[in-house]
Structures are given as C-alpha cells and as structure tokens.
C-alpha cells in the first residue's frame, strides 16, 4: 500500500492567501468607496439634486416673470397694486378683510 501524501504547508498557505484576497476584493467591490452601495447612494443623491434644481429653476422663472411684469417696459398695474398692498399692509375703502 502506498502512502497518501497530505498537502504541504505551502499549498495551504497559498489557498489561505488567495481566499483572503478574494474576500477583501469582494468586500471592496460592494462596500468600498467606489462599491455598489456607494454607487446607489450617489445615484439617489443625484436624483434628489435634480429635483432641487428643477424646483429652483421654476422659482427663478416665477421671479423673472414677476420682475418683467414690474419693469418699465411692461408694467402690470394689478400686480403693482397687489404688491404695494402686501408690503404696506393697506386695503382700499371698498374692501372687506376676513381673518
């Protein structure tokens, strides 16, 4: 009968190093600074920032419209009257205020 040979210490050490490196790179690919979880976080943040940008662009468009309507080139008297009343806190004599 022949003697069965057990793997040497070098083979076991090599397998342990390869397994450890495999686990490390797998962990880094999922959890690392450039991993899958971080990529999902960045995508969610980008969507939130896009929504904020759209909201701010709508606000800028509204303010540009109000500015145009109160400019010398195009004066909206109704808007001017409304803004003056809001700022001064006054009403006309024929109006009722309901609180």
Please characterize this protein's 3D structure:
This protein is mostly helical. The protein has a domain at 10-74. The chain is built from three helices and no strands. It has helices at 9-31, 36-69, 77-88. 0% of the residues are buried. The mean pLDDT is 88.
Q: How many extended strands?
A: 0
Q: What is the overall number of helices?
A: 3
Report the average pLDDT across residues.
Answer: 88
Uncertain segments: none
The amount of helix comes to 55-70%
Task: Set out the fold topology.
Elements: H1 9-31, H2 36-69, H3 77-88
Structure in a nutshell:
With 99 residues, the chain is mostly helical. Helices cover 70% and strands 0% of the residues.
Question: What are the salient characteristics of this protein?
Answer:
70% helix, mainly alpha, single chain, 3 helices, 99 residues
């Amino acid at each position: 009968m022949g003697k069965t040979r057990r793997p040497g210490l070098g083979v076991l050490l090599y397998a342990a190093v390869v397994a450890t490196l495999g686990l490390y790179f797998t962990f880094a690919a999922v959890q690392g600074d450039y991993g899958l979880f971080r990529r999902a976080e960045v995508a969610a943040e980008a969507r939130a920032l896009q929504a904020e940008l759209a909201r701010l662009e709508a606000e800028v468009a509204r303010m540009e419209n109000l500015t145009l309507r109160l400019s010398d080139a195009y004066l909206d008297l109704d808007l001017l009257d409304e803004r003056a009343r809001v700022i001064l806190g006054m009403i006309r004599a024929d109006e009722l205020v309901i609180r």
